[in-house]
Amino acid sequence: MEASTQQLLDTCFPFHFGLDVEGTIVAPGARLTRLLPGLEGTGLFDGFVVRSPRGVCTIAELRRICTGVVVLDARPSDLPMPLIRLSLLTLRGQFVR
Which of 8, 30, 47, 89 could be a cystine partner for 74, CB 3.0 to 4.6 Å? Predict the structure, then answer.
């Protein structure tokens, strides 16, 4: 039985997501979708704040540094109520083309 690419990504990287050329979030991972159900179709900078590297606020800037580590914080208003009480959701990873 052969697993699809999406199934493999969901298994190995449950908090992954893709971006289209305009910076819209597409195909978020299973775990990320459970925590942030309205994330798909949202602009990256509408759903997240880039904590590191500092000063990144456009997709063009993100593309320039796409090989480095990026830290994203989910915007508080996008988190379900139980998570707001616990803490912000922070993602740490790397963008690949």
Answer: 89
| Full-model pTM | 0.78
Selection from 31, 27, 32, 34 nearest residue 6 by Cα: 27
- Map residue 59 onto helix, strand or coil: helix
Query: What residues contact 38, with CB distance under 8 A and at least 6 apart?
Result: 78
The residue among 70, 74, 76 whose CA lies nearest residue 94 is 70
CB 51 within 8 A of CB 31: no
Task: Answer for the pair 76, 84: CB distance below 8 angstroms, yes or no.
Answer: yes
